[in-house]
Amino acid sequence: MYTQSFNVPDGGQAAPGPQAVPNEADAALQAHFDAAIDADGKIEPRDWMPEAYRKTLVRQISQHAHSEIVGMLPEGNWISRAPSLKRKAILLAKVQDEGGHGLYLYSAAETLGTSRDQMVEALHSGKAKYSSIFNYPTLNWADVGVIGWLVDGAAIMNQIPLCRCSYGPYARAMIRVCKEESFHQRQGYEALLTMMQGTDEQKAMVQDAVNRWWWKCLAMFGPPDDNSPNSVQGMRWGIKRISNDALRQKFVDATVPQAEVLGVTLPDPELKWNEAKGGHDFGAIDWDEFWQVVNGNGPCNKERLATRVKAWEDGAWVREAALAHARKQQQRDMKEAA
Ligand code: BYC
């Protein structure tokens, strides 16, 4: 079962970040917290918060951070094979941005009293989840464009409401993340537009990539609302603002006209406009496949984790050197102050 609960105290034990208080004294603090949530206010790191709220945030933010970091891998594979200097420079910048998003998010989660080392350990040991979407392979250059257009497009749809999340550090991190994601989405769409003006072979590559990624992107929004155990409380706390199904619907409705302009067919014979609901109907998502992937059995889960663990181990000397330097600096500062 995925959780970071092992590093978030359950009872009244004080966490290094926001102050925890014994349960008996909670009523007034709880009322203050509830009032802030009801008034659509922000909760900040030093504010009292229920432990369940803290845990939910650590779970979601750390999972989000891991997704950004693991998300660097499928596209990173293509940096050395980008078809031009321009595409290479764009892809390098994009992958670097994802690394930055991971760092803002780890920092936001650290304000809740969980260290980055603890979060990284949870990822590397397989306890922590990251987005299902990054467990699929990137087979050709069109996949890189489709990741920008559809994966980042889905990410933006999910993340714009998070800019209004009740937890201040997460909401503020998401504002910058969303601006950068918007660039990522456009570069992907533009790369695909270029390919769609090319040879028949290039057009076929784009269609093939869309066929392989479409359903995986719909599943990215998480299980249907009636099978989403965290949604009700997440919405009550103002962490989630729009439900998994509502975001999925918005994504489909926004993407259909973009596909028409691009000249690709979305691989769903049941996809059609429904005048009565003011949105598109679409076919059934394969949730068995989704859970297989989430539970570690997707096509690339093992490879992705192994790559992250190796990068961490290979970087041990850098962390040791940085710590040694910090210790020396501290000793020098203390000597000077004495
Ligand atoms: N993959 O009750 P639910 C990016 C889990 S980064 C894996 O609906 P919740 C990008 C869920 O964790 C994209 N697991 O949960 C980066 C829960 O399990 P636990 C990442 C998933 O939290 C680089 C269980 O299923 N974005 O786009 O209310 C390059 C039940 O779900 C997934 C974020 O992380 C999934 N797709 O809602 C390019 C955004 N979906 O934890 C692009 C922040 C669900 O109880 N996160 N699960 O064991 C969220 O908005 C929410 O956490 C979710 C799930 C909508 C993902």
Structural notes for this entry:
- The protein is mainly alpha-helical.
- The protein is built from 13 helices and 2 strands, in the order H-H-H-H-H-H-H-H-H-H-E-E-H-H-H.
- The protein has a two-stranded antiparallel sheet.
- Helix 4 (85-110) runs antiparallel to helix 7.
- The chain is globular and about 75 Å long.
- The termini are far apart.
- Bound molecules: benzoyl coenzyme A (BYC).
- The site of benzoyl coenzyme A has 28 residues, from helix 2, helix 6 and helix 9.
- The averaged pLDDT comes out at 93
N-C termini distance: 51 Å
Shape: globular
Low-pLDDT segments, ≥5 res: 1-17
The residue fraction in helices comes out at: 55-70%
Give a quick account of the main beta sheet: strands, pairing sense, barrel closure.
2 strands, antiparallel
Rg (CA only): 22 Å
Strand percent estimate:
under 5%
Cofactors, ions, other ligands: benzoyl coenzyme A
Number of β-strand runs? 2
The secondary structure category is: mainly alpha
- Tell me the series of helices and strands, N- to C-terminal: HHHHHHHHHHEEHHH
Counted by DSSP, the helix tally is: 13
Q: Strand order, main sheet: write it out.
A: 1-2
Concise structural overview:
The chain has 338 residues and is mainly alpha-helical.
List the main descriptive attributes of the protein structure presented here.
disordered N terminus; 338 residues; two-stranded antiparallel sheet; globular; mainly alpha; 13 helices; binds benzoyl coenzyme A
